[in-house]
Amino acid sequence: MEMTPRKEKILAAVVESFIRTGEPVGSKTLMGELDFRVSSATIRNEMADLVEMGYLEQPHTSAGRVPSTLGYRYYIDKLMNKLEVNKNESESIEKSVASGRGDPEQLLEKAGEVIARLTNCAAITTLPTGEQACVRRAEFVPVSNRTAMVVLLTSAGTLKSKACRGDMPITQQTVERFYAVCAAHFIGKPLEEIGTVMLQTLVASLGEYALEMSPYFVALADLASEALKSDVLLEGQSNLFNHRELSGSVVDIMELLRKGEPLTKLIASGDKDGLNVKIGTENEYKQLSNSSVIISRYDVNGSRSGALGIIGPTRLNYAKLIPYMQFISGVVGKILSETLED
Amino acid sequence: MEMTPRKEKILAAVVESFIRTGEPVGSKTLMGELDFRVSSATIRNEMADLVEMGYLEQPHTSAGRVPSTLGYRYYIDKLMNKLEVNKNESESIEKSVASGRGDPEQLLEKAGEVIARLTNCAAITTLPTGEQACVRRAEFVPVSNRTAMVVLLTSAGTLKSKACRGDMPITQQTVERFYAVCAAHFIGKPLEEIGTVMLQTLVASLGEYALEMSPYFVALADLASEALKSDVLLEGQSNLFNHRELSGSVVDIMELLRKGEPLTKLIASGDKDGLNVKIGTENEYKQLSNSSVIISRYDVNGSRSGALGIIGPTRLNYAKLIPYMQFISGVVGKILSETLED
DNA sequence: GTTAGCACTCAAAGCTAACGAGTGCTAAAC
DNA sequence: GTTTAGCACTCGTTAGCTTTGAGTGCTAAC
Q: Which fold has domain A87-128+231-340?
């Protein structure tokens, strides 16, 4: 069976009606929503075909139709008319987001808040990562006799620190040795190259100072690998409770989001033209099989980038939210470009 | 009507049975749980008295009794036998917590995890704060032509940083002026003294460099006030969903916990001997009127301290959990003392 | 190919009856 | 005076039943 223009119109109407109301859509309801006049019986025939083709589903025999994952996919890829963000909204969004200008973390937190409020979904955002960030600076700050803060600053502007307790008292020499080794082995080095292998050769080369110094360099390497991971922020988690269709899975979703790793994976997932929409079972994680994820990348002067995303029910207003997300990621990219480069 | 030993025994039995089962406790059930033999009718009479005295409540006429806030309070203060933490548990707890040794944040995250798992509640923990922390070090790291990372390290070992965009290009002079002003006005100064007043006089004294330099000092002052707030960590929020009696209020509680301020307030609430238990309506926040909060302070060499807490239903196993919390805060205090002082 | 008509399906809502855990009260026993 | 057995009563819970109505698939006529 092949797709016809009329079937497309009916499919689009079902999707849009279901997105609006959340109720399965019946043939009579649909009559009033189509721009051509046919009887409900005709619509029923067409809908039966669409079910057979896999675009619609029936919760039970005597209920209306609901879009399947495939149906949503077809709608988004071929049928949907994107709603442009109107002037008023775009200005107010831009103003809200811009209030976080200055500090990237604050900016993305703000952006997350705006997205969460606007979409009534959970928002995930990543801080910008530089592709080939390297170590810019390392600091060693004793805080007690045996404990020091080790601080790492990358060329991408990421700062990480950690308290670290050594096995021997810290002396002036400890500090000097730290900076000397850093200058030789860490400063200017790409973060990717700082791994266990590099660390082992380094420790070996420390000779008699290995015992004294190695804890700090281990910590430094930890910081480097932390800095490589793009930090992910989460906002508006509790919005998920507002969607009845998620009621069973909210806890599972939250549990999934709590762990950093899946989040990172989610938001990094391959995208074309900076946009990525995953519907229901298209998602890698089964906890999200009733959810949709919209991810939009932002670019900072071409060199660095991150992403903004939302997680919500499959019944998202894609036509409205996709342009929103693209607009907001544009704003974030623009502001970050201003902040970070000159 | 006054309390009698028999009434106390009955009250304790009701509380314990209710904590165990979550079901209202009837007179017949209670017969089997008392260490003396009386008929159910007698127990009914006593329970009626306890209701009148405000220690018990009746969900409805034909249901058993449930402890009131007052009942729990009486039980905890006068009747409860604390269960000591047994050797096996204490060792395994200590081992788990100690795995976060080294970095305070990591330690308290770990402690929070352990608590959450052990108690099936949400765990809140604060990082240790020094009473009179002062500025130990400030750093200025340009990341682009007009943006710099401003970094603040306190004597308590807290490190805060922020990207900050100035109005003029950053030059070598900018950096030198920054460090000069810091040395004169920030280093060694108690965090409390860095407020808007101090900032205004400082900016005024900058003269012709005010425009160029002030953004960075504003950022530095921001960092100082951030460093003053004790950081609060939250673990195991989703455990709250495991308690049926909280079902209605979990979202409200989570919304409350999301904001930092209430958390800080909660965990800072006045305590005697380091322990603080708030039952149901004793809590300041109405979102917690069905919940209990147990807070236990930890001390680090007397000089700094923080707290560990749990939030759960009022039906907590106080006799077990209070000693747990005290034990864990002891462990945390000990480990932190080792890490931070010498 | 389209439509009116009709019998059929099935979840949801409402209704009633039975159940049973638990109570308060009374009067007798201790 | 306290304790207890006995009993009528309360009330939330559960199960089973019917009703309702939105929606369907099929058929036969247009």
A: Beta-Lactamase (3.30.450)
